[in-house]
Amino acid sequence: MSAHTNKPIFPEASPLGQEINWKAPWIEVSLWVELPFWLMVGDTTVSVELSGHSFEVEIHENYFELHVGVLSDSRQNVVYQGPRKREEALSNEIRNWMQAQPDVPLMWRKCKSTLKIKSRCNEDVWNKAQETNVSNRVDVAVRYYLAELCRAHIPVVNTIVQGYRLATYDYFPYEVSPWDVAFWLVERNSKCLRSWLVPYREWDLKPKGFATPFAELAEKVLAGEKLDPPTLPYKLIEENDLQGRLSAVASPGEFDLLDSLNLMERGDYSGAVRRIATALEVIVESEFGSAIEAAQGMKSATKFLKETETNFRRRVEKYEEVKGRTLPALLRKEMYDTRKLRHRIVHGGYRIAPGERGRAQRAGDTGRWTYNWFENSKERFEIREKKIAFRGLGRDTYAGIFPTKITPDGVVVSSLPH
Prior knowledge:
With 418 residues, this protein is an alpha+beta fold. It has two domains: 20-206, no CATH class; 250-391, Four Helix Bundle (Hemerythrin (Met), subunit A) (Up-down Bundle), CATH 1.20.120. It has 14 helices and 14 strands. It has helices at 92-100, 123-130, 136-151, 154-168, 214-222, 239-245, 254-266, 269-296, 298-307, 312-323, 329-348, 357-375, 378-385, 388-391, and strands at 2-3, 26-34, 44-50, 53-60, 63-68, 78-83, 106-110, 114-122, 183-188, 191-196, 208-210, 232-233, 404-407, 410-413.
């Protein structure tokens, strides 16, 4: 079964982003994002200092969303966000639509704490987003730009959240990731553009799949043929197989490995690195102990585990010696680099920024491969490593496609070098 995605297939070889005038001037915009929790403070404006730039952020408690037809998790049906208004105070466009569609219900949803961050955007991107007759490729470039622009401001959001937590010790707020704040508005002069950071969060229904192999679908698209809608249900396991799998026993550290994969997709890159490092420590301890026990007995295994409790490197070396296996040099280097990075996160308060996603992804991927090597199970390897693209449908695969950073002048979104 071929999975259906909204990812376009381009015959052009030119890099995505060439359609944007990267030298266009900056224009002022406001980025709106609703938090998944309340900040127990009234409406106010605060200033956040990051990398030499001061971001002005409004905190609003009285915002609502107006949904058309149904209340959707994706918020595709939202036509207004802001203080609740009487029908006659809504825009002419909304009121005209209501008159033309009297049988379609409109429903209000109360928002939790909503932030409005003053920032900037490339003027050419903004103008292209207003155009109706743009190519699919331009539309994709604009959407990716806006997503990267919004994602770059998550450290601003977390600075407020962490400051609030330190000041109040409120039990409920937490440091957010793109998964937690997936829906943004980019606003200028009362005009708003939507941006979603995680494709999976846009799904109000499970996706459908194609029975036709992907290669054939690609050929049809490139030939300009129209595809029939996908009809097959998207499944990762058949119903009659699930019951038998519920009794499966996880390998040591495997749930930490799963958590690492999940945190990576949620955008908690620091958490993902911490979990993969833990998963490796646990599987090494288990395999190392089993190897010593098999070779020298339980007493020697217990003694060696105690002696190397704080010496991970010695455990790895002893495991290789006893088992007669040598960890590939690349995996060895990445494993120890990941442990150093985990140390910075845990003991130095370091947080991996959205623009550094690639570093966390490398730690996660090589960590998973290293886990496979120590576990040395063909069955578990195939479950983890086969059909990765298929089961990864909905991943945030475009994160980092346009690099971002915060400078004293504000956020900068750049094209990839080519």
